[in-house]
TrEMBL record:
GO MF annotation terms: protein-disulfide reductase activity
Gene3D superfamilies referenced in this protein's UniProt entry, alphabetically: Glutaredoxin, Zn-finger domain of Sec23/24
The protein's name in its UniProt record: Thioredoxin
CDD domains the UniProt entry points to: TRX_family
Gene this chain is encoded by: trxA_1
Family as reported in the entry's similarity comment: Belongs to the thioredoxin family.
Keyword Electron transport: yes
Classification lineage: Bacteria, Thermotogati, Deinococcota, Deinococci, Thermales
Domain of life of the native organism: Bacteria
GO annotation, biological process: cell redox homeostasis
UniProt domain Thioredoxin: residue ranges: 13-139
GO terms for cellular component: cytosol
Source organism: Meiothermus luteus
Amino acid sequence: MGEDIVACVHCGAKNRLGRPPVGQVPVCGACKKPLPWLVNAKEGLTPELQAGVPVLVDFWAEWCGPCRMVAPILEELAREYAGRLKVVKLNVDHHPLAQAAYHVQGIPTLILFKNGQPVERVVGALPKAALVQKLAPHL
Ligand SMILES: [Zn+2]
C-alpha cells in the first residue's frame, strides 16, 4: 500500500497525510490551506469515520472495472471539496467485515457518512455530475 501523499492545490507543496486531530482537517504544511483528503483505509473503516467533515467511502476492488472509472472522479472531488470532505477508499477484499457491516452487495458502492452515520448511498459508477447532485445537499 502506498503512502498517502498529496500535492497542495494552492501552492503545490507535497504533504504526507497523517491523521489530523479529531474534528480537524489536514492542512498544507507550507501555506496552511486545507489539503485534498483522500486516504486508503488500512485499519478498517471505523477509525476513518472519525472526521469533522462528511466522509465519502468508496467500496472497491482491484478486479472491478467500473471502480476504475470512479477513482479519478473521487480524486477530483477531494480536491474540489478540500476542507469540506474526506474521501476514503476501502478495498473490500482487504476489509470484508466493513463490507458486510454496511451490506454492500455490489461494487463500486459509495456511502457518504456524516457524524459516523450513513446518509447517502450510490451503487454503481455514476458520471461526476450525477454523483455531485446526490452528495451536494450533504456537504
Ligand atoms: Zn499549500
